[in-house]
Write a structure and sequence with these properties.
The chain is 47% helix and 17% strand. It is α/β, with parallel strands linked by helices. The chain has one domain: Rossmann fold, CATH 3.40.50.300. Strands 3-2-4-1-5-6-7 form a seven-stranded parallel sheet, with helices on both faces. Strand 6, helix 10 and strand 7 form a beta-alpha-beta unit. The radius of gyration is 18 Å and the shape is elongated. It binds guanosine-5'-triphosphate and magnesium ion. Guanosine-5'-triphosphate binds next to helix 4 and helix 5.
C-alpha cells in the first residue's frame, strides 16, 4: 500500500494517474483516500470552480467542450468532472460525454472524469467535493463540474461551485415558472443553448424577466462561447472582490 505522503506528493506534482487513483478511492469512500484528501486541505488554491447544470440533453457537455477549448487557449489547465446522479443510467451517457469531449481527450492538460453515485445516499456531494479538492491540489486552474439539475441533487452544486451556469434548451414555456424556485434560483448565469432553433429568442426574452444574465449559445459551433467565458470571469472577479472586502 502506498504511503500517504508519497501519494500526496504525486498529486501536488499533478500526476494524473495519482489523481485518478485517489478519486477512485474517494468514490468508494475508502478511509485512506479520505485521509489523503484531508491532508490536502491546507494547500493554497487559486482554482475557479464552475458548475454547469441544467436539464438532460440541454448541451452541457458540448458547452464544456467549447469552454475547455477557450480556457486551453488561455493556457489554463482544465479539470472536468461529469457527475452522473441518476444511477439507472448505463455507461452510455458517460461514453457519450467522452465522445463529445474527444477533442481534449489526448491533451495532457485536460483531465476528464465521470463520477457516479454508486447508490450512496448523499455520498455524491461529498465525493464530488473531495474530487474538486484533489484537482485543486493537482494544479488545475479551472474545474468544470457537470451535473444534471433535476431531483434532489439540484441544490448541491451551489455548495460545491463558485459560479453556477444553468444550461437550458429553447422551448421552456411554462417550465420557467417551475424553474424559478429551483434552477433559476441558484444560477449566476443562464445559457440558452441550441440558439440555432427558431424558438430560442422567445426563451431568452422570457428568462430575462427573471435573471439578469442570459446568454444564447450554439455549443455545436462555438457561437456565444466567449460571452459565456466573459460572464464567468466577471462573476469570478466579483467573488474575489467580495472576499477581499470582507477580510
Ligand atoms: N441544434 C443544436 N444541438 C446541440 C447544440 N449543442 C448540443 N447539441 C446537441 O444536443 C445533444 C445533447 O448534447 P449534450 O452536450 O450531450 O447535452 P448534455 O446536457 O450534456 O446531456 P446529458 O449529459 O445527457 O444531460 C447532442 O446531440 C448535441 O449534439 C446546439 O447548440 N444546437
Ligand atoms: Mg452531458
Amino acid at each position: 500500500m502506498e504511503n500517504m505522503e508519497v501519494l500526496k506528493n504525486r498529486i501536488t506534482y499533478g500526476d494524473v494517474r495519482a489523481v485518478s487513483k485517489l478519486i477512485t478511492m474517494l468514490e468508494a469512500q475508502d478511509p485512506f483516500g479520505n485521509a489523503v484528501v484531508k491532508s490536502l486541505d491546507s494547500l493554497p488554491s487559486q482554482a475557479s470552480i464552475i458548475g454547469i447544470t441544467g436539464y438532460p440533453g440541454a448541451g452541457k457537455s458540448t458547452l464544456i467542450d467549447q469552454l475547455t477549448t477557450c480556457y486551453r487557449a488561455e493556457g489554463k489547465k482544465v479539470g472536468i468532472l461529469a457527475v452522473d446522479t441518476s444511477s439507472p443510467r448505463t455507461g452510455g451517457a458517460i461514453l457519450g460525454d467522452r465522445i463529445r469531449m474527444q477533442s481534449h481527450w489526448s491533451d495532457e492538460h485536460v483531465y476528464i472524469r465521470s463520477m457516479a453515485t454508486r447508490g450512496h445516499h448523499g455520498g455524491l456531494a461529498k465525493a464530488t467535493g473531495d474530487a474538486i479538492q484533489v484537482l485543486e491540489a493537482a494544479g488545475y486552474d479551472v474545474i468544470l463540474v457537470e451535473t444534471v439539475g433535476v431531483g434532489q441533487e439540484e441544490g448541491q452544486i451551489i455548495d460545491l461551485a463558485q459560479t453556477v451556469v444553468v444550461v437550458v434548451a429553447p422551448g421552456l414555456g411554462d417550465d420557467i415558472q417551475a424553474m424559478k424556485a429551483g434552477l433559476l434560483e441558484i444560477a449566476h448565469l443562464v445559457v440558452v443553448n441550441k440558439a440555432d432553433r427558431s424558438d430560442a429568442d422567445a426563451t431568452v426574452h422570457a428568462l430575462r424577466n427573471w435573471v439578469s444574465h442570459v446568454i444564447p449559445t450554439i455549443a455545436l459551433n462555438g457561437e456565444g462561447i466567449h460571452a459565456v467565458i466573459d460572464a464567468i470571469d466577471a462573476h469570478q472577479r466579483k467573488i474575489v472582490e467580495q472576499h477581499t472586502y470582507r477580510s
